[in-house]
Design a protein that fits this description.
The complex is a heterodimer of chains A (426) and B (988).
Chain A lengths: L3 H25 L4 H29 L18 H4 L2 H9 L1 H6 L3 H9 L12 H12 L5 H13 L4 H30 L6 H13 L2 H24 L17 H7 L4 H4 L14 H8 L11 H10 L1 E2 L4 E2 L10 E2 L12 H7 L4 H5 L16 H10 L11 H10 L21
Chain B lengths: L10 H4 L3 H8 L8 H5 L11 H20 L5 E2 L15 E8 L4 E9 L2 E9 L4 H10 L9 E2 L2 E2 L2 H14 L4 E6 L5 H13 L3 E5 L6 H11 L4 E4 L6 E5 L12 H7 L10 E6 L4 H5 L2 E4 L5 H13 L10 H8 L5 E5 L4 H13 L7 E7 L6 H13 L2 E7 L3 H4 L3 H8 L4 E6 L11 E4 L8 E6 L2 E5 L12 H8 L6 H11 L4 H7 L1 E3 L25 E7 L12 H5 L7 E2 L4 E3 L1 H7 L3 E3 L5 E10 L2 E10 L7 E6 L25 E12 L1 E2 L14 E3 H6 L9 E4 L2 E4 L17 E6 L8 H9 L7 H5 L8 E6 L5 H7 L3 H9 L7 E6 L8 H5 L5 E3 L5 E3 L9 H5 L6 E2 L35 E2 L5 H14 L11 H5 L5 E5 L6 H7 L3 E2 L11 E4 L1 E3 L3
Parallel strand pairs in B: 7-8, 7-15, 10-11, 10-13, 11-12, 15-16, 16-17, 21-27, 23-26, 30-43, 33-42
Antiparallel strand pairs in B: 2-3, 3-4, 5-6, 5-17, 9-14, 18-19, 19-20, 21-28, 22-29, 23-27, 24-25, 25-26, 25-28, 31-32, 33-40, 34-35, 36-37, 38-39, 41-42
Helix pairs in contact in B: 5-23, 8-13, 11-13, 14-16
Classes of the chains: A mainly alpha (426), B alpha/beta (988).
């Protein structure tokens, strides 16, 4: 159940790849259906394994290794399977210290090159090792997702104001055209012509002379202003785009985006608890014991973690008897006390992505509130979202009952009582 | 049209009573506490013109609007180093033990982010006081640092001085006075201490003495111990005053008792209670005989003689008991609450004649909860007076308050050179000590206990000590100059005995082989007692269910816990029978707002007098007797417990009292004002024999005439029914036969649902906030049939019905929100704050509620509670919710309600949501045994069962189909999700 977000993204990309691969197979092996089927099955199997491998990688390795040639805590793992053979890698991952102790030259070389920092031992099963190494040998193709995103942004590109300006321009042109037509007709008939402002003014007087018109315009004006006031008042307490300054200039873009650290690596309790929880400083130290300098802010921001927990980056040791200073983050997503919200309900049982509510966190240098977090916003989602019942034994009986009751309709959260007051207010 | 007719509202008006005249000019008969309400006592003295008022109004509105626009900055502070076992937002449970010197239970402690917030049953039964003890951890009246002569000191200083004093007092006696010690390791350490210093003696004392029974067993069996009783293995239970379902002996009897009284087995044990005060056991008994305390010994002697086959005239009151016992040899239990050795010897003899030993009573596997020796303490008082005692170390016992000869003890204390107390509180005893060592609460301590033969439990801390406290064992270590710490000692002790420490600590209990005590040959030793008529008023002192011995008197939950029998809280009083009260001209009456008032009296006996004691008329109290509860009248317990009621400990052992009515009246805080069912069948009941003939006996359903013929209410409805077939349908079954009325559920509910304490004054105004109450009804001598036979008027009949019988039958009925599926409250809410869920729950949305109270008005069960005030952070309600420390007990999953909203039982919706979520996350269907509300899990007799009736395998679904199941006020057809099982008595 871990790493849902990554898993699903990869599911999508993998399926695309699988589809392409199988299409390719289809073309070349059109004459041999048997071989095609075999290949199809194989490709599924292979990519299932790679997916498993990716999961393992993200869970265990990603905090210290990148899937490129760049160095994080440990070396980048691009092409590592070409450089070392499978057996060597397995024994290194199982227990690197034992390998070093056995006098393996390559092992000692790596150890020395990385300041003698000890890599954690992982006792994976053989299957898991196969999956992990397969993944390391065939890392996923990321460009396609990126290009998809680019397309999306182009589509959304034209803003509302631009559209309005174009419409206004068209309207002005029409007015100009009509007045010139009218004037040319009048000239033809030998009548007095009017300038544009004169026309507008006479038309206005004609319009105002009719009470119904005034009433209509007045009503529209009142309705629009009421709507404006209503929106203004409804906006009180809604803190969308709230972007406070934090005690540490932490960038989600660097961590979750560029370095691809899984959300769950830091926000550990999101899958277990109602809180997603801000990571404790000791969790930061898993990586920042080694990384004491950032690419943007240098040592300044990372030093704040050391200051909180009492770590001396020079000697790489914790200071004994240090009075620790908790980091006072500014809370961005504030729900009122009378609303109960549970992260694990949405992430595990509901299968939502973090981004569904929190927006593109992996692109945010400074985190801000993406969603409205109003009750209407919650309820809209509960009305639209279908419950993922397949494969969950809790729902087996209920699913049959609800299928019977709502024949043909999608079973959304509200059909299971998901918009009842007592589900969130108690 | 002019009319000459005049109407009077009453005789007083006709007679032109000046009071009526005065009332007529005032809209409200009582003074309205407006200034109090607004929180400013100086308000009446200020002058504010209308214009000023409007200015203020405008300004505050503008200010409030502006303030509302600005979003406050909220800080979120994570751990620096997160403890591995804590996931923020997820509760951890630890098995532990609560033993405060009086109450013992093996418990599960629920902690959130390292704070214990709830105590649940682990093995055996956690009574109301143990359930409430979690609040005592956060009691700011606890000792916070060591004291030397009443002033703040530090451990090093007092340790140094205590050690040097102990060495100096070489030849003089040094006494360690403790409550009964259950911990084998503590006994070991005390043993070491005795070896380390010369002339040390360890004495144990129970706050409520059981010497009579212990000494009798010592004489009869050679074992000074409390036997184990097996109430599930008996056909006949005869209790002479022993409230074994309440406070007598151990807590665990009630679950056994109820096990032996399941009507499904077509057999129930028959329970006779022969007592003075109406106790919880008496209320549950099948037959109850009222006697004066002076008659007890005679009746026991008479019974023994009869059973032995002696030629005596059997007292007519106990002939039935005699016959029943005779035919149930080896399958009966006779117990007695007397603290007289001879009486207990007689009871032992009876049980011996009945061959009950090692069948239903076991002295070979004794219970160690009571080990105290009051006789030794009386001797100690003499020794102290003589100056023989050099040092007195008192641990966890408060003899200055609760020893019957407390005055002598206090006097003798002055003769002791070194007085040390280790205690949780600066109690009456600790106040008189030279050195006071704060002890941590059970939930902050390590420990072990051996409550009964071969049964052991472990205690582990669930929070780091809040104050600068130290365990008694560690104190002993440091006074012996041993550099040990108790937690390591404890672990090593048990590991060296080959115990699987990790597993035992996880489980909280284990069994460990132990030598059986050597039992000597039995000889009949009881001396018969003759009947002597005593025409004086006699006193029987009892322990109340809520406060017990007064150890936790400063726990506001317990103070506000209504006594199951009298339904009065925040008080103790004299209970007196209606007949005696009438003879003495003592009265209870209701004042205009319904609250109960009573006369006050002076009570005196053998040189002791209590002045201005309130009198509460108690049906079921034996004629010419009075009862009073110990545990009250504390003077040094803390702000909630000080000066509540009077101290009855000095009256223990006194029999004859004189009562004198004095001027004045007392104001009671009574939860229940009507004591009988007034001819309605709120509780449906029947007898065992009727039940065997027809399981639905007594479960009569009202029928309505319709065009389809006569139909029961649940088949006639105007409402469109909710869809309750799909998904879950949560129901709660309450078995009135199994409910003993002990109130564990009430406190469990209070702890789980953040229910505020409102104080005596508010309870008097019927503004108590408990989400569940246990209604207690007395039977009446009058009923419709009898009224007809006697041919009395309906009004007279109802008047008679209002009066409880002289020796009433009692029923307990827990009532919480019934979660009606045709809910009257939902229809009248103007803002839809109370709505129905598709799982059969009646939901209450506090943030929608505007406080019209229409719902409370329309609720036929009167279970909705209104927040008349802000009960948290309010100095007028200075209980646990008014301090940061006290608020640590709050359950973070339940909202603390604010002023002006209605609240009520939610059927622990937070537990239901958690249950469903866990099942969804695991991808498994819900297991029936996981479905619990807090009242159902707290109930040690399994009277309350919760579950999903749409799951046909669930226990509650089976209970719903049972012939005994009925809805409270079923003729209203509100279709509650809570239902009851008929009360069945083993009575002809």
């Amino acid at each position: 159940m871990f790493l849902c977000r990554q898993k699903n993204i990869n599911l999508r990309s993998n399926q695309e790849i699988v589809l392409k691969k199988s299409m390719g197979l289809f073309r070349t092996l059109r004459s041999n259906i048997f071989l095609f089927l075999l290949g199809f099955l194989f490709s599924f199997n292979l990519y299932g394994q790679v997916e498993e491998g990716e999961k393992l990688f993200k869970q265990n390795c990603a905090s210290c290794h990148l899937m490129s040639s760049a160095r994080l805590v440990g070396p980048g793992l691009e092409g590592v399977t070409d450089k070392y053979e499978k057996e060597w890698l397995i024994s290194w991952i199982r227990n690197s210290q034992a390998l070093i102790a056995s006098g393996d030259e390559r092992a000692i070389e790596v150890f020395e090159a990385y300041n003698k920092s000890v890599m954690t031992s992982f006792d994976f099963s053989d299957d898991e090792f196969t999956a992990l190494l397969d993944y390391l040998a065939n890392p996923p193709v990321k460009e396609e997702i990126a290009s998809n995103n680019a397309q999306n942004s182009v589509e959304q590109g034209m803003s509302f104001s631009t559209k309005m300006m174009i419409i206004a321009l068209i309207l002005a042109t029409i007015v100009f055209l009509l007045v010139s037509i009218k004037n040319s007709l009048k000239t033809a008939l030998g009548k007095e012509t009017e300038t544009i402002p004169q026309t507008l003014f006479s038309q206005y007087q004609l319009f105002v002379s009719n009470n119904i018109n005034v009433l209509f315009v007045g009503a529209v004006f009142v309705i629009v202003s009421l709507k404006f006031v209503f929106d203004l008042l409804m906006g009180v307490g809604v803190t969308t785009n709230y972007m406070p300054e934090q005690p540490i200039a932490f960038s989600h873009k660097i961590h979750a985006g560029i370095n691809g650290v899984d959300c769950n690596y830091c926000h550990t309790s999101a899958r277990h608890s109602k809180h997603s929880s801000i990571p404790s400083a000791d969790l930061c130290m898993n990586c920042h014991t080694y990384i004491n300098e950032g690419s943007v802010s240098g040592k300044k921001e990372i030093a704040k973690i050391y200051d909180a927990i009492g770590f001396d980056p020079e000697t790489r040791t914790y200071i004994e008897g240090y009075e620790q200073k908790p980091i006072k983050w500014v809370r961005i997503h504030n729900l009122p006390d009378h609303a109960y919200f549970n992260h694990s309900q949405h992430v595990v049982a509901g299968g939502l992505e973090c981004q569904d509510c929190h927006g593109p966190v992996e692109e945010m240098d400074v985190l801000y509130q993406h969603a409205e977090l109003t009750m209407g916003w919650c309820i809209d989602c509960h009305r639209e979202t279908e419950v993922k019942m397949e494969g969950n034994n809790y729902y087996t009986h209920l699913h049959e009952q609800l299928k019977e009751k709502y024949k043909g309709q999608p079973i959304t959260v509200d059909k299971m009582g998901g918009i009842e007051c007592g589900k969130c207010h108690y | 049209m002019d009319s000459k007719k005049q109407y009077w509202k009453g005789l007083a008006q006709l007679e032109n009573d000046p009071a009526i005249e005065k009332l007529a000019h005032n809209e409200f008969s009582e003074h309205l506490p407006v200034d109090e309400f607004l929180g400013d006592k100086k308000l009446p003295d200020t002058s504010t013109s209308r214009r000023d008022f409007l200015k203020f109004l405008g300004f505050t509105t503008a200010a409030a609007t502006l303030a509302a626009c600005e979003t406050p900055v909220v800080k979120s502070i994570p751990y620096v180093v997160k403890p591995e076992e804590i996931i923020p937002g997820v509760a951890n449970y630890y098995a532990s033990t609560i033993y405060d010197g009086r109450d013992f239970a093996s418990v599960l402690v629920k902690t959130r982010e390292g704070r214990p917030i709830k105590i649940e049953n682990n093995q055996g039964c956690a009574n109301a006081r143990i359930q409430a003890s979690v609040l005592s951890v956060y009691d700011s009246s606890r000792l916070q640092y060591p004291l030397k002569s009443g002033k703040k000191s530090n451990w090093r200083e007092i340790d140094q001085e205590i050690k040097s004093s102990l060495v100096k007092l070489k030849d003089k006696k040094k006494i360690i006075l403790t409550s009964s010690i259950l911990s084998p390791t503590t006994k070991d350490i005390i043993g070491d201490f005795i070896k380390h210093y010369d002339n040390v003696e360890h004495i144990m004392l129970d706050s409520v003495a059981y010497d009579g029974l212990l000494n009798a067993n010592n004489d009869a069996f050679g074992v000074r111990a409390f036997p184990s009783y097996y109430f599930d293995k008996v056909n006949t239970i005869v209790s002479f005053g022993a409230d074994f379902l309440g406070n007598w002996g151990s807590n665990d009897y009630s679950s056994d008792y109820v096990k032996g009284r399941n009507p499904k087995n077509k057999k129930m044990s028959k329970h006779y209670q022969i007592e003075t005060n109406l106790s919880l056991s008496g209320a549950n008994a099948d037959e109850r005989i009222q006697i004066k305390p002076s008659e007890q010994d005679y009746l026991i002697s008479n019974l023994l003689q009869a059973l032995k086959g002696d030629k005596v005239k059997i007292d007519s009151r106990i002939t039935k008991i005699y016959k029943e016992l005779l035919s149930n040899k080896g399958k009966s239990i006779v117990v007695c609450d007397s603290n007289n050795k001879n009486t207990q010897l007689l009871v032992n003899d009876i049980n011996m004649v009945l061959k009950n030993y090692e069948r239903t009573i076991s002295i070979a596997s004794p219970n160690y909860l009571k080990q105290g020796d009051s006789d030794r303490v009386n001797l100690l008082i003499d020794e102290m007076k003589k100056g023989d005692v050099g040092a007195l170390i008192i641990q966890n016992i408060n003899p200055v308050y609760n020893f019957p000869n407390a005055d002598l003890f206090t006097q003798a204390l002055t003769e002791v050179e070194l007085k040390v107390s280790t205690s949780l509180y600066l109690d009456e005893t600790a106040k008189l000590m030279d050195y006071v060592c704060p002890e941590p609460h059970n939930l902050e301590s390590w420990g072990d206990a051996n409550p009964s033969h071969t049964n052991y439990t472990l205690m582990q801390p669930t929070i780091a000590p809040i104050f600068n406290s130290r365990q008694f064992q560690d104190s002993l270590f440091s006074w012996m100059e041993k550099s040990l710490d108790y937690s390591t000692f404890l672990k090593n002790y048990w590991k060296s005995k080959g115990l699987d420490w990790e597993k035992s600590l996880h489980d909280g209990y284990f069994s460990f082989s132990q030598d059986k005590p050597k039992i000597k040959l039995y000889k009949f030793q009881g001396k018969y007692v003759k009947n002597n008529d005593n025409d004086k008023i006699e006193l029987a002192v009892y322990e109340s269910i809520g406060i017990g011995d007064g150890y936790q008197a400063n726990n506001p939950w317990l103070q506000e816990f209504p006594d199951p029998i009298t339904r009065v809280c925040w008080d103790n009083y004299l209970t007196i029978s209606p007949i005696t009260a009438k003879e003495l001209g003592l009265k209870n009456w209701h004042v205009s707002n319904g609250a109960l008032n009573g006369d006050i009296v002076d009570v005196s006996s053998a040189g002791r007098t209590l002045k201005s004691i309130p009198v509460l008329i108690q049906p079921g109290q034996a004629k010419d007797t009075i009862g009073m509860a110990i545990g009250y009248g504390r003077t040094s317990s803390g702000k909630a417990g000080n000066n509540v009621g009077f101290n009855a400990f000095p009256f223990i052992g006194h029999q004859n009292v004189t009562i004198k009515k004095v001027d004045g009246e007392h104001e009671f805080a009574s939860i229940q004002l009507h004591h009988t069912m007034m001819g309605r069948d709120l509780v449906k009941e029947t007898s065992l024999s009727e039940y065997i003939k027809d399981p639905s006996a007594g479960n009569y359903r009202e029928k309505y005439y319709t065009h389809k013929g006569k139909l029961p209410a649940n088949e006639v409805s105007l409402y469109e029914a909710h869809d309750l077939e799909n998904g879950h349908f949560w129901n709660l079954s309450i078995d009135l036969t199994a409910c003993t009325g002990c109130g564990e559920c009430v406190i469990a509910c209070q702890a789980e649902n953040n229910i505020p304490v409102v104080g005596k004054e508010e309870v008097r105004k019927s503004r108590d906030m408990h989400w569940m109450r246990i209604d207690r009804y007395y039977s009446s001598d009058m009923n419709f049939k009898k009224g007809k036979e006697l041919d009395i008027s309906t009004i007279d009949m109802y008047k008679q019905m209002e009066k409880a019988a002289e020796n009433p039958q009692v029923v307990f009925q827990p009532v919480m929100c019934q979660h009606c599926n045709n809910a009257p409250c939902e229809n009248v809410c103007p803002v839809a704050a109370t709505t129905h869920s598709n799982e059969g729950l009646n939901q209450m949305t506090y943030n929608r509620c505007v406080g019209t109270r229409y719902c409370a008005n329309n609720c036929p069960y009167k279970v909705r509670r209104f927040n008349w005030f802000q009960y948290s952070e309010n100095d007028k309600f200075d209980f646990n919710m008014n301090s940061d420390l006290g608020k640590m007990v709050l359950n973070p999953d339940v909202v603390v309600r604010s002023r002006g909203v209605i609240e009520k039982c939610s059927m622990c919706i937070q537990k239901i949501q958690e249950l469903k979520l866990n099942a969804k996350k695991k991808g498994e269907p819900i297991r029936d045994e996981d479905a619990q509300t807090l009242c159902s899990s707290a109930c040690s007799t399994n009277a309350i069962i919760f579950g999903d009736v749409n799951n046909p395998e669930s226990k509650v679904a089976k209970m719903r189909k049972d012939e005994r199941a009925f809805d409270l006020l079923d003729h209203l057809n509100v279709r509650p999700s809570v239902f009851y099982q008929t009360k069945i008595r083993n009575k002809a």
